[in-house]
Amino acid sequence: MVRAFRRISHYYQKLRTIGISRCARALHYRVQKASFVKKMRKRIGGIEKVPQAMQVSCRSLSFLDELKKKCDRDQLIKSADRYVAGRFDLLGSGEQLFKKMPWHEDIRLSSQDPRAQSLFDPNQFYADISIQEGNGFTIAKDIKLPWELSRFHHLPVLGLADAVTGDEKYAESAKKQIADWLNENPYLLGVNWVCPMEVAIRATNWIVAWHWLHGAWQEDQPFCNRFISSLRDHMTYLESNWEFYDGRTSNHYLSNLVGYFYLCWFFDDERKRDWCYRELLCEFEWQIFDEGSSYEGSTRYHQLVTELTVHAVLLAREMGVEVDDKLLCKVDSMLEFLDWCTPNADGQVVAIGDDDSGSLLHKELFGLPTVASILFSKRGTFFGVKRYTQFGLSISKADDWHVTLRHHAYDRRQPSGHFHDDAGSVTIAYHGVPIIIDPGSYLYTPSYEWRNQFRSAAMHNVCYLPGHEREHKELFGLDMAEARDEHLCKQGGVLRARYQIAADVSLEREVAIDEEVCVITDRVSASDMPIMKNFIFSPEISVQQEGDSWLLIHQQKPILHFTVPLHAKVVLQDTWTALGYGRKIRTTCLQVSHIDGESVIFRVAD
């Protein structure tokens, strides 16, 4: 009886949070997928042949011609030559030489431990594949490695290199790799058909590459027909495998839709195109707050969502679909959020929440800044103090200091899978140099312990109570209270946040900035508790004790002094940071005991 009551209560709360319409659609999509799986299990294999007439090959995308003009030619050729030679660097693997493309292998794991089980079964039906989760700190094989390779980010690079140079080696290499993938990845078999997001991103990259390569391939009619047939399979797959989940959709569903939007253009299907665009508009409204931030609680996933949105707008314009000013204003606000979160000229966004290094197209050559510049030719740079109450982030940005302060901000309609336990965490950069950083994300499914360590409070620049940290039971979900904690931004650059660090223990953090100093002051409701605070330094910073303070050194030159309260206990220790998904390196952390009402100070070095 108790269990039944809990289930009823659970579904009642979900209906209240998500709404009847989205819950009904979630149920519909589940039934649709189950029917598709049942049908296709009996008939493995995709469409044998789609006449090339189904795709009007002479059409082109004008914004891709603009992308061609903006691409760095030297970097393009250098990257394309690496791919022709079979050299790839995937999610922390380091550059690897592939004599045969490892479509079903975690090559990062096999290079680190040749004895490890790194292969995935290429003949297993996609719906029967479960993603292996690693126990403890032992690393299990990571499904994201074959996924990343099979996204084919490199294919448009080869395509544009062919268009720029006329050297047939690029088109030939691209054709061989696609033919090999088609041979090794029959429709619905193997890991590369498991995740609809991966299918959608692959379809997008194939279509973008086709824009530049179809002229070079046109004499090989059997290959072209096979390529087009596979894209039709991609489209059919997406139509029965939407990642709508329980209605709390994410970047996955947006990726599904953007990939499908490209396929609608490719096959010139106006009816499906119109449905897809309406659905995209609904998702932009659902997933992107009015302030312009993504509701997934991560700056790097916001970056991906913004890239997806920009592509949707550019493609809609290309197809003659009316894009209203409201959507353009929202895209502009999304880009503005990223500008506020960027401390230096290289465009590296400060990491808040999860980061899996994901992108729709090749990040270095066709990434968001390049694509967005097609939509908005000129954009300003923002300075001052900005508060994003829905995302939960206050930012102070000037020519010298860039400081962020994280607030607790969450409601139950948001998926919590990419949040970190980081309320009250700060990041600091000075003159574009990262000083205090967020550790990012090292791994997801390959290690339960590494996953939880990197998103724990103890791995962020927060005050926390050792032994009272929250237990994270799910790899893609945090047990978060529904609240938007009080916080203020006042003139003069003062940032404030108030949040809970344990049951009945609240903390107020104040960050004050002027030209010479950044001062962080914490006040706790129960000051007799052994509260600690972390300051995790960028790997670029070396830390040396100098009397009662610490000297922070960048490129062998002092940049800041770090001073703690006189009677505070300070421990200098090693910790980890992830420069990107799959890549962790050692860095330094200062752990400081809390003295209520007293401040730690970052002061400009003389």
Keywords:
alpha+beta; 4 domains; 606 residues; five-stranded antiparallel beta sheet; 17 helices
Tell me what the structure shows.
With 606 residues, the chain is an alpha+beta fold. It folds into four domains: 1-43; 71-219, no CATH class; 242-379, no CATH class; 384-604, Beta-galactosidase, Chain A, domain 5. 38% of the residues lie in helices and 19% in strands. It contains 17 helices and 21 strands. The chain has helices spanning 2-18, 20-41, 62-70, 73-84, 107-112, 144-150, 154-165, 168-184, 196-217, 221-239, 251-266, 270-287, 299-318, 325-340, 363-366, 368-375, 448-455, and strands at 87-88, 96-97, 384-388, 393-397, 401-406, 409-410, 426-430, 433-436, 463-464, 483-484, 489-490, 494-502, 505-513, 517-524, 532-536, 541-546, 549-554, 557-563, 570-580, 583-593, 599-604. An eight-stranded antiparallel β-sheet has the order 11-12-13-14-21-18-17-16, with no helix packed on it. Strands 3-4-5-7-8 form a five-stranded antiparallel β-sheet, with no helix packed on it. Strands 9-15-20-19 form a four-stranded antiparallel β-sheet, with no helix packed on it. Helix 7 runs antiparallel to helix 8 (168-184), helix 9 runs antiparallel to helix 10 (221-239) and helix 9 (196-217) packs parallel to helix 11 (251-266). The longest helix has 22 residues, at 20-41. The radius of gyration is 25 Å and the shape is globular. The relative contact order is 0.09. The model has no long low-confidence stretch (mean pLDDT 90).
